[in-house]
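# nightly structure sweep
# worker-07 picked up a monomer target from the shared queue
# config: single-sequence mode, recycle default, output format = structure tokens
# input follows
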Amino acid sequence: MKQKLALIHTVSWYDKSVLEPFGREFAQANPDVEMVNIMDDSLLSESIPNGGPTPAVIRRIVLYAMAAEAGGADVIMCSCTTMGVATQLARRFTSVPLFNIDEPMAAQAVAAGERIGILATVPTSAPATRALLAAEAERAGKKIAMETVINQRAFQHLLAGEIEAHDAIVRQEIDQLADRVDVIALGQISLSKISHTARVPILQVGRSGFAEARRLLNQAAPPLGV
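# output follows
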């Protein structure tokens, strides 16, 4: 019997941002895993003007996580960095592993340096990433300093399908931020297809998230012969 990985998405274009660049590659490499998708694009659109997930958004994330578990999910991953606080709360109501796609990146960033740059194009993503990095640093017993850059103009280009303009802005921001930090964390799945080389490591969500899903699925798998 296949294991099941449930993905919770908050944008209608999750196929382009998550499945095409990362999910299909994961599926090909893991034929023993069935992926199912839950999408509610009101989650992010409601969160942005409110500075983060509202109580109603958090409640829906909890309910979607519970529904995923009820549907047989062995592991649940939320693909939206803005939903970090909601995902953490939803863990109280599920008995299977549940995590946000950016959590592995946060651990890598804290291990990579003390001055961490956060680059985002959605205003709610950066605070969520800062909170995640702070929590990870506390777990690691490490002091870090964070610098945040948010370029909403780039996100507007992305929504308009102007990918080249979006990518050019992000690369420019990376180059400027790299002069002041030890490592850069790109705080959104929509930034994960950016290809760029800078003076410092550039960490992205995406493959690291799916790698964590694989690790958790391995832990959840029953012993051989069972």
